[in-house]
Amino acid sequence: MGQINKTSNYTNIGNVSTKKLKLTGTTANAINTNAFVAHGLTKSKILSVIASVDTGTNVVQAEHSTNAGLKFSLFWNDTNVFIYNTNESAGILSKSFTIFIEYEA
C-alpha cells in the first residue's frame, strides 16, 4: 500500500456538527484483493464514505461499471476503509485512490 495522508475539516449544520476526513492511498496490485486505510473513527459516527480511483485517464467511483476493468467495491469496519479490487478491476491495479468520509463530530 502506498503513502497515506489524512486531512480533516469541521462543519456545523444546525444542531449537527460534522467533520470530513480525506484519506489517500494506492489500490492493491492484484484482482480480488483489498487495499485499506485506517480511519481512526468510531464506526457508528460515520455518515457517508465516497471513494474514487484515478486510472491515469479517468477518475472512477465504486461500482463503476460502464467501462470494463474499472470496477471496485468500497466498505468499512470499526478500523479501516477498504477498496476491494473485483474480478473486473484490471484497469485500476496499483492506482491512486481518494476516500472522503463525513462523520459526526
Can you describe what's shown?
The termini are far apart. Mean pLDDT is 89; it is low at 1-6. Strand 4 (46-54) and strand 5 (59-61) form a beta hairpin. With 105 residues, the protein is mainly beta. The chain has a single domain, classed as Immunoglobulin-like. It is elongated, with a radius of gyration of 14 Å. The protein is built from no helices and eight strands.
State the helicity in percent bands. under 10%
Report the mean per-residue pLDDT as an integer: 89
Which sequence of strands runs across the widest sheet? 1-2-8-4-5
CATH topology description: Immunoglobulin-like
- Describe the largest sheet: 5 strands, antiparallel
Would you count the extended β strands for me? 8
What is the radius of gyration? 14 Å
- The global form is elongated
Summarize the structure.
The chain is mostly beta strands.
List its traits:
105 residues, mainly beta, Immunoglobulin-like, 3-stranded antiparallel sheet, disordered N terminus
